[in-house]
Structures are given as structure tokens and as C-alpha cells.
Amino acid sequence: MKIKTVKINGIRGFMYHETPHVIRLDKKHFFLYGENGKGKSSFFEALEWGLTGDVNETKARRVGDKREYLFLFFIKITPFLLI
Questions:
Q1: In the Cβ-directed half-sphere of 68, how many Cα atoms lie within 13 Å?
Q2: Which residues is 49 bridged to in the sheet?
Q3: Which whole number is the average pLDDT over 45-70?
Q4: Phi first, then psi: what are they for 9, rounded to 5°?
Q5: Whose CA is closest to 67, among 49, 51, 83?
Q6: What pLDDT does 80 receive?
Q7: Which of 19, 29, 33, 37 has an alpha carbon 20 to 30 Å from 13's alpha carbon atom?
Q8: Mean pLDDT computed over 36-42
């Protein structure tokens, strides 16, 4: 299985927008770069959560509720990840 597109909205560094953030992975190579705090780790944590239902970082940081770690509660939408 090859993941071609990831759509994220309302998860950590991916603030809510009317249309979701779309990350295309359908090329031969994929590079993710950016300044600190721009969502690089959030992308991989959202992907990990979407594929496994868990995020290992929550255990390392001793976060009890994964939703508290992943989701932006001040926004009144249901966050989502579409793979």
C-alpha cells in the first residue's frame, strides 16, 4: 500500500481551515521541512495516530488523554485525518 494523499484539519500544528490541509505523497521522494513550530512533527504524529490509533510521544510525555495532546479544543470542530 502506498499513501498518496493525507488531509489534516484541526490537529496540533494544522489549524482549522474551511478546507483541510492537503499533503501529497504521490511523488518518488517526499521532503518535509520548515521552521520550528510549523507542523513537521504534527504531520507525523497525525499520520501515526491515523494508522495505529496511538501516538508514542504521548507515552514519553506522560500525557493521559491523547485527544488533549493532538486536538485543538478551542476550535468547535471535529479534527480529522484522511489517508
A1: 7
A2: none
A3: 76
A4: -150, 125
A5: 49
A6: 67
A7: 29
A8: 84
Of the ranges 10-14, 20-24, 41-45, which one carries the lowest mean pLDDT score? 10-14
Rounded distance between C-alpha atoms, residue 16 and residue 35, angstroms:
19
CB atoms within 10 A of CB 12: 19
Per the CB < 8 A criterion, the answer to whether 51 and 44 are in contact is: no
Alpha carbon distances (Å) from 7 to 21, 37, 38, 59: 5, 19, 16, 25
Taking CA 50 as the corner, what is the angle to CA 47 and CA 78, rounded to the nearest 5 degrees?
110
Residue written as grid cell 521522494: 29
